[in-house]
Amino acid sequence: MALSLQEAFSSVEDPRVERNKRHQLMDIIILTVCAVISGAEGWEAIEQFGNEKQDWLKKWIALENGIPSHDCIARVMARIEPSKLTECFVRWARSITELPDGEVVAIDGKTARRSYRHNDKRGAIHVVSAWASLMGLSLGQVKTAEKSNEITAIPALLELLEVKGCIITIDAMGCQTDIAKKIIEKQADTVLAVKDNQKQLHEAISDYFAVARVANQPALCQLHMHENIDAAHGRIETRRCYLSTCLDTLPNAARWKGLKSIGVVECERIINGKTSIEQRHYLTTLTDVAACASRSTRSLGD
To answer: Are 201 and 250 in contact (CB under 8 A)?
Structure first.
């Protein structure tokens, strides 16, 4: 059953003392959630959203003392445990939607803009988030102390999500055996980008496809190819996705739980007569080259 935002966030405890409560906690939380969903970035943008949408917001929340200032919003939200907010948001998101089989969930880490605090030299906020690509829905996020902590934050985020039947895509930072195992345990498929941070693995995949494509023996190399061409405004982009179920050349392939294929996506762009070619390499539990090419690898920025 679908929950209202009030129901979903009702378990959040107010961190303020009674005499300092000029604005209701639920007003601040719902204002912030609605503003961020609408694209607001930063406390001032949340306040601006509130002022512009005040009449609409009053249909749902009291706002007895008007829209709180951005400083007030920042103070209150900063004192609420981030994991509690994430838990409530994920609970709400689960209640209003059911992810279809094959939905691509992109897990990515980003540093929040303008989150570095110069006055006390406090580091910028880095978050790992999950985005349902087809539905255009944020499923949740976990804050980390720094970018390198994505490896520990991704399993924590996966624990919050119901992703059975989905395809989870993660950039090279998250290409780890423990993370792959966690995704399989959640009964989802994986597309993991492989880069030079795992040099031996990257070279093995790159070398395999270089030889397989020159050999031009798809059956022998267990090679499948899908090509898509987009042309518009003087720009031609050709994407070729190659997938192979041959894992013999991978170093210790058995440690990647559920692994079925290796892949490479070659993106050739011709812009104003100039050609550029970029390749990206993957480990995946998928064996359908068209599915891998059309949605999954695109969520990783090809």
So the answer is: yes
Same domain, 56 and 124: no
pTM over 0.85: no
Q: How many CA atoms are closer than 13 Å to the CA of 127, on its beta-carbon side? A: 14
Each residue's pLDDT tens digit, 129-173: 888 888 777 787 777 765 557 788 899 889 888 889 999 999 998
CA distances to 4, 18, 86 from 66, rounded to whole Å, are: 22, 19, 26
Spatial separation of the C-alpha atoms in residues 288 and 292, rounded to whole Å? 6
Three-state secondary structure readout of 239-294: EEEEEECCCCCCCCHHHCCCCCEEEEEEEEEEECCEEEEEEEEEEECCCCHHHHHH
Domain annotation covers residue 267? yes
Give a yes or no: residue 211 inside a domain: yes
pLDDT at site 289: 85
Tell me if 88 is assigned to some domain: no
**Residue 259 carries which side chain, given as an amino acid letter?**
L
State pLDDT tens for residues 84-124: 888 888 888 777 777 788 889 999 887 665 544 455 545 55
What are the C-alpha distances in Å from 1 to residues 11, 94, 165, 280, 290? 18, 9, 21, 41, 35
Tally of structural domains, the chain: 3
SS3 for 104? strand
Instruction: Determine the structural domain holding residue 211 and report its residue range.
Output: 196-300
Tell me how far apart the alpha carbons of residues 93 and 96 are, in angstroms, rounded to a whole number: 5
The owner of tokens 């004192």 is 79
98-110 burial by CB neighbour count: b if 16+ within 10 A, else e?
ebeeebbbbbbbe
pLDDT in tens, 186-245: 999 999 999 988 999 999 999 999 888 888 777 777 888 888 888 877 788 888 899 999
